[in-house]
Amino acid sequence: MDRIAGIINLDHEQDLLDELTYFRCGAAVPFGGRYRMIDFAISNMANSRIESIAVFARRKYRSLMDHLEQGKAWDLDRRSGGLFILPPDWNDPTDISRGDLQHFHNNMDFINRARADYILVSGSQNICNINFQDVLEEHKATNADVTVIYKDVDELYPEHRLAHKLSIDEQNRVLDIHNDQKNTKVYMDMYLVEKNYMNELIEASIAHGHSHFFLEGIKGRLQEMNVHAYEYKGTHALVNSIESYFRNSRKLLDREEHDGLFKEDSPILTKVKNEAPAKYLQDSDVKNTLVANGCLIHGHVEDSILFRGVKIGKGAVVKNSIIMQRCEVEDNAVLENVIIDKDCKITGGRTFIGAPEKPYVLAKRKSM
């Protein structure tokens, strides 16, 4: 059976979530009530029987390392293979690589030693539930050099402006990768390539002075390569701004959207924390809300997402909001269209109201 090794490449991802990425990289941002953004990429790989996964991290990765630990939550704390967090470590004085090619070059040991025939590279900003074994089967059937994954979106949102789009022919061969604002075939920052061929591409890209492996090593050589496009048809969200984070998070309040992402046969896994179930006190009133373990609710909560350990005081009102771990909203406070990062306290009687298209955001460990 052909094996796949995984690389989660965070090197070129920009931290565009404003206050939420002041102290952490985007991959470590909490999402969906109990998860982090990177959980989806790792879970997809683990569910696809990928047993060796490397994370290329360049900056603000302390929170990420604390969350991932040794990969136990994904059954990756093993002797053979496992999870490898690879921050910058440029010790080769002869190295001439630049950009994310530094990570590929300086971590060739991971690629070469992995018991795998293919390498699957993914980012962390595309939230989905995908089986990469299906991608591999199509890759082999089409005799592709590289297979890239895309989503044909029903509607283009502002976050798609920054995403690359694909032009493909009737056989799903990629003709061009561009930034056409009207094209709905959104490249999901995921691609599969045979390991030995990837080594050749890395060496050639470095020799030509390139700095971005995908854009220059693959996109720049489309005419001489067979690049196949695999269409992902499941639930998908691209999160690369506060606005896209807020809108796509709140989509999870829709049962169909939620169940399309969190499937019983391919679960999204995360770091385990043993906490008591949420407690709803006598006067609480909770409607259409995701509530994680350890919450204590005494007030009114509607159309919101509460992460682990959130406390909502008596008479407090929370609407259309995202409240992260261990936050406390004291009595009679009012929150609407807000995102409160972890370990914040909203004092009694205070009111914070944002707009649905521009939520008010409070960075972590603040008291207001």
TrEMBL record:
It comes from the Bacteria. GO terms for biological process: glycogen biosynthetic process. Gene3D superfamilies: Hexapeptide repeat proteins, Spore Coat Polysaccharide Biosynthesis Protein SpsA, Chain A. This is Glucose-1-phosphate adenylyltransferase subunit GlgD. Its EC number is 2.7.7.27. Signal peptide: none annotated. Residues 20-153 form the Nucleotidyl transferase domain. It is an enzyme of class 2 (transferase). The lineage of its organism: Bacteria, Bacillati, Bacillota, Bacilli, Bacillales. Belongs to the bacterial/plant glucose-1-phosphate adenylyltransferase family. Residues 280-350 form the Glucose-1-phosphate adenylyltransferase/Bifunctional protein GlmU-like C-terminal hexapeptide domain. Keywords: Glycogen biosynthesis, Nucleotidyltransferase, Transferase. GO terms for molecular function: glucose-1-phosphate adenylyltransferase activity. It holds the Pfam family NTP_transferase. InterPro entries: ADP-Glc_PPase, GlgDAde_trans, GlmU/GlgC-like_hexapep, NTP_transferase_dom, Nucleotide-diphossugar_trans, Trimer_LpxA-like_sf. The keyword Membrane does not apply.
